[in-house]
Amino acid sequence: MRRPRGRPLRPRVQSRIEAQRDVEADRGREEPLARALRTHTDIVDGEALRTPTTRCALREHELVVRRTEAFLLREYTDWLGITQPKRLRTPAGITDLHLALPEGSEVVEARRANTLGFVRDVLAQLLDYAPHTPESAARLTALLPVRPADRDLALLHRYGVDCVYRTHPRTFDRSPAPEEARAAMMPLWRHGRGRHS
């Protein structure tokens, strides 16, 4: 076929070849989103703690709520050297702290006291969050202001949950759950991954 004189040839199809590293970079950016869509969980920035107290007027009284857990959590993340803590927004609620470990996710929940009621509460919340982590849950951690009683610590450990507690200002200690308890619980933590209610 002859082309008319004076007209340049125009390619019918233009193709773009991307460098392999660009494709890999795109995959790296897309994978966290794909994981979040599979688990219905988002990784979001940690609480900035811009408001240390909350006030509420009740007819004749003013209620002041001290945000002890937020202070405890900030002190803990400072101690860990985390400048931009992350949380998970899951179908079960929003976690206090999410740590991406080489072996999987760690979820940390803080409580303002170490009594049995608070220990039971944090245990239930951690177990509720566990199936919704972006990577399989490798560690669940209760963060408390002081070491709980031995029987309450044993309750956490029975379900494979670690306990981190404050020993001095800006100093924490971890009481890890026995490895056999954690290993026994991990299949239950992961049960229902990818499902939501």
Task: Write a short abstract of this structure.
This protein has 197 residues and is an alpha+beta fold. It has 5 helices and 10 strands; from the N terminus they run H-E-E-E-H-E-E-E-E-H-E-H-E-E-H.
Description:
It is a single chain. The protein is α+β, with helices and mostly antiparallel strands and 197 residues long. The protein has one domain: Trna Endonuclease, Chain: A, domain 1, CATH 3.40.1350. Helix content is 35%, strand content 28%. The protein has five helices and ten strands. The strands form three sheets. It has a five-stranded mixed β-sheet, with helices on both faces. A three-stranded antiparallel β-sheet has the order 1-4-5. A hairpin with a 2-residue loop joins strand 9 and strand 10. The longest helix has 20 residues, at 20-39.
Layout of secondary structure:
Elements: H1 20-39, E1 42-45, E2 53-58, E3 61-66, H2 68-80, E4 86-90, E5 93-94, E6 97-101, E7 104-110, H3 116-129, E8 137-144, H4 150-158, E9 162-168, E10 171-175, H5 179-190
Parallel strand pairs: 7-8, 8-9
Antiparallel strand pairs: 1-4, 2-3, 4-5, 6-7, 9-10
